[in-house]
Amino acid sequence: MNEFIVIFIGMALINNIVLVRYLGLCPFFGVSKKLGPALSMGMATTFVMFIASVATWPINQYVLIPFDVKYMEIVVFILVIASLVQMIELFIKRTSATLYNALGIYLALITTNCAVFYLTLWNSLYDYSFLESIASSLGAGIGFTLALILMSGIRERLDIADCPRSMRGLPIAFITAMMLSLALLGFGGML
Amino acid sequence: MDKFRKQFIAGIIVANPLFVLALGLCPTLAVSVTIDNGLAMSGAVIFVLVASNIVVSAIRKFVPNMVRIPIFIVIIATFVTIVDLVFQAYIPALYETLGLFLPLIVVNCIILGRAEAFASKNPVVNTIADTLGVGVGFALALVTISFFRELFGTGSLSLFGVDLFTLPVLGEHPITIFILPPGAFLVIGLLLALFRRTGVTKSE
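Structure tokens for the assembled complex are given below, as produced in the milestone run.
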């Protein structure tokens, strides 16, 4: 049990996928202007990360490794993620209109979210067991959501702040990200 | 030829993928620790960008509209696998430092963005001009960021393993934060603001 907690905390805080590993930056800057959408994006990404880890683990263990075609993992994983996201989108569209309205537009964006792809490669690189890769996917998802929520809270306030004209928008968002990232570095020696 | 030149230059300045459009940030921030890494990453991205878009442009008349995105992704992933294997075989040291960020070129939005917006609608020659311009613009931005990060973060500059120079005070007491994750955000934020202040790009 202990090692799952270590992997979870490691992924969520110490190696926070956005602020320490610089992944998923496009949604991080693109969807963090308001708190509501940021939360939806975070949840949708966590969900896709979980499903992607569950789906790629057996493919890696029972197809790629036994047949010695591990060099194909880039092509295989990205195809699996892209088709999974498409399937989830269709499924949600048919079953729940409210959920589709809340998450629909973000799902398409998640296909090209490098955080999801990186996570599947990371799980295969470190040879995680099935449960370990679930722990790491949940940790990464929670970490991503946390970063997005923190950022959107700050940006809602930054909108009404009086900052120099050339700093408005993206530049000040980057400086804010630097402060957040600096704060997360403090977790570095925890485990 | 004139049109070729115009398309090439547009990608470098007016539509610079990093500084103007803020695309392809993920690999940029992670590998921009030293100029060497920046150059290697740029080379890999330019190769994948140009090669995959030539293929996309060449087969654009046979690709059904419904399944175009998966097809583009498979083409890009194939070229990324080639780059990955070439790096692993011939420059293992760089392969180690770039690590998982080499496969991540697949999900670099610049490449898929160019395939979708330009290569799937234009002939091969124009596509080469467009992607080369965007690629060089990306490389320039990446090398600029890594220049500042290496200079302040280590106090010295080196190129392909040869030390160029060391700054007097910074060489002994480098500002380590520049080579840590926060430094990447700081440098790119300040550069974006600088370009807006000097009028190279437009403010919001």
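Residues 124-154 of chain B form the longest helix (31 residues). Residues 2-197 of chain B form one domain. Further analysis is deferred to the final report.
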